[in-house]
Specification:
Pfam families: Dus (PF01207). Residues 507-536 have a biased composition (Polar residues). The chain has helices at 2-10, 27-36, 48-52, 96-106, 122-126, 137-150, 165-177, 200-209, 226-236, 245-249, 262-275, 280-291, 298-304, 309-315, 319-336, 384-395, 431-445, 463-535, and strands at 16-18, 40-42, 46-47, 54-59, 64-69, 75-79, 87-92, 112-117, 155-160, 182-186, 214-217, 240-243, 357-361, 364-369, 401-407, 410-417, 420-424. By secondary structure, it is of the alpha/beta class. The strands form three sheets. It has an eight-stranded parallel beta barrel, surrounded by six helices. Strands 13-14-17-16-15 form a five-stranded mixed beta sheet. Strands 4-5-6 form a three-stranded antiparallel beta sheet. A hairpin with a 5-residue loop joins strand 5 and strand 6.
């Protein structure tokens, strides 16, 4: 058992590790960090209850294993074989048996399981998870020993330091006695935030007293290039280093060769987002954190106006790649009878590309259409509910009456006008947006708007995105023109070169002929001289 524990601990010695980050550490970002050289990468935290109500699906379209929330159909954990030996699954829990059940679910697909014991956010504390566990040693012992004894993969936990060094050391010794493979230590208390200095000295003291690997975390303020990672490790005396924000800002910091241009990093990240159907909101959030102050540039402002993954892909010159991948995925879904798991990946160009279905339910006519409300596709003067209200008032119709269905924080709204119920089959994160979606269905069903209404932005609705897209097209045209000019120049140079070679060859032949003629004349004169001399 001791040998096995030692082997498991080796996985965490001398490593560079990417920390769990909400909405960032999904499959595309994790794979990108693997490309750039991370030794291990954590998933974002998943609460045990969410995992336990999920279903697992082998996604042959994407080549992934998906864990899907049964309550709303969303994929919250997607993984693939390529990251199998690198990915650490982090859970939020306050119960040993629930934690073990989750561990058993992910055991075949991950390199280790980590328990979040450091999150200071309110939702974790109220649920008795995260940093709330730091003052409950009995619960910590119960959770960790149950996991260590019940799983075949390494078990770790990530903590924050306590208010005093003796308390912190006592807690860390208790955690080590539970048999964990390693311990991650964020060098701040639960009250401290990133603006506060990291207590590297406390991590150093922890590393001195423990025999298991200590993973130092919290040093992003000190890490601005790859060499700083090693320096942070030396300053803390830790076995390994875990970085969060420094990796989020530009994860090519993981490369020993140095940074890549940010545009290159974003483009490579977006390729993975497109390939693995990453949720639009997560993709946009991650790119936004990469851009930071560059959000104030024309391209950054255009990015902020984007409402779908397709629009983001256009800004980074990936529209053709997006269309190719989407067509491939749609074909795969069709053959395997999969449904689209996430909205706002791309919008059809018009209502002609979706079906408006009429049916009857409990004696009431119901009209359904799949469309989401994308705010950037509307001017303030033509919002769906505004147009619907105007029509109802002018025609003196009965309504509108809105109703809602809430499924795990997602909203589905219906609007009833003159006894007919109109609803979108796609859910929204916002109650207001779901009502706007239902209003769009009414407007299209009644033929009150153009076929493209709600599907594409009207003129001037997103000026920065329009300007940048136009500039990208212009640059592509210029680039193609430059390439054509270069090709023509190269061709002309080759032709000129051939002409020069022919001229040189011709001149060489002429010169050779002249030299031969001169040699012949000289030879004749010499012969004449010899004959004259002989005659004398």
């Amino acid at each position: 058992m001791e040998v096995q524990k030692c082997n498991m601990s080796d996985q965490y010695r001398g490593k560079v590790i990417v920390a769990p980050m909400v909405r960032v550490c999904t499959l595309p970002f994790r794979l990108l960090t693997v490309d750039y050289g991370t030794d291990l990468v954590y998933t974002e935290e998943t609460v045990d209850y969410k995992m336990l109500r999920s279903i697992k699906r082998q996604n042959d379209v994407l080549g992934t294993v998906d864990f899907i929330d049964k309550s709303d159909g969303t994929v919250f954990f997607r993984t693939c074989e390529r990251e199998r030996s690198k990915v650490i699954f982090q859970i939020g829990t306050n119960d040993a048996q629930r934690a073990l059940k989750v561990g058993k679910m992910v055991e075949p697909y991950v390199a280790g399981l980590d328990v979040n014991m450091g999150c200071p956010k309110e939702f974790s504390l109220k649920g008795g998870m995260g940093a709330a566990l730091l003052t409950q040693p009995d619960k910590i012992k119960s959770i960790l020993t149950t996991l260590v004894q019940g799983l075949t993969i390494p078990v770790t936990c990530k903590i924050r330091i306590l208010d005093s060094l003796p308390e912190t050391l006592e807690l860390c010794k208790l955690i080590e006695e539970c048999g964990v493979a390693a311990i991650g230590v964020h060098g701040r208390t639960r009250q401290e935030r990133p603006r506060h200095p990291n207590h590297n000295d406390v991590i150093r003291e922890i590393a001195k007293v423990l025999t298991i690997p200590v993973i130092a975390n919290g040093g992003s303020r000190e890490i601005s290039r790859h060499d700083d990672i090693k320096k942070f490790q030396q300053d803390t005396g830790a076995s390994s280093v875990m970085i969060a924000r420094a990796a989020m800002w530009n994860c090519s910091i993981l490369r020993p060769e140095g940074f890549l241009p940010l545009d290159t990093v974003i483009e490579q990240y977006l390729r993975y987002c497109i390939q693995y159907d990453n949720p639009f909101t997560y993709s946009k959030y991650t790119v936004q954190n990469m851009l930071r102050e560059l959000q104030d540039t024309p391209r950054g402002k255009a990015f902020l106006e984007t409402q779908t993954l397709q629009e983001i892909s256009i800004i980074w010159g990936l529209e053709d790649y997006f269309k190719t991948q989407l067509a491939k995925q749609n074909e795969g879904r069709k053959s395997l009878n999969f449904e689209m798991s996430e909205g706002k990946t791309a919008m059809p160009p018009s209502a002609d590309h979706v079906k408006i279905v009429e049916r009857e339910e409990n004696g009431q006519k119901v009209v359904e259409m799949p469309i989401q409300f994308i705010r950037g596709n509307f001017n303030n003067a033509d919002l769906p509910k505004m147009l619907l209200n105007t029509h109802v008032f002018r025609k003196q119709l009965k309504g509108p009456m809105y109703s809602h269905v809430i499924v795990d924080k997602f909203f589905s709204a219906s609007v009833t006008v003159d006894g007919v119920r109109y609803t979108s089959t796609l859910r929204e994160k916002s109650k207001r947006y779901s009502e706007q979606g239902a209003a769009i269905v009414f407007l299209h069903a009644m033929g009150l708007v153009s076929k493209t209404y709600g599907f594409v932005p009207p003129q001037g609705a997103r000026k920065y995105l329009t300007e940048v897209t136009r500039q990208i097209v212009k640059e592509d045209v210029m680039s193609n023109e430059i390439m054509r000019n270069n090709d023509a120049r190269i061709e002309n140079e080759e032709t000129d070169c051939k002409k020069r070679r022919l001229e040189d060859d011709s001149a060489s032949v002429s010169l050779h002929q002249q030299e031969s003629s001169q040699e012949t004349d000289t030879s004749r004169n010499n012969n004449k001289s010899s004959i004259t001399d002989g005659a004398s």
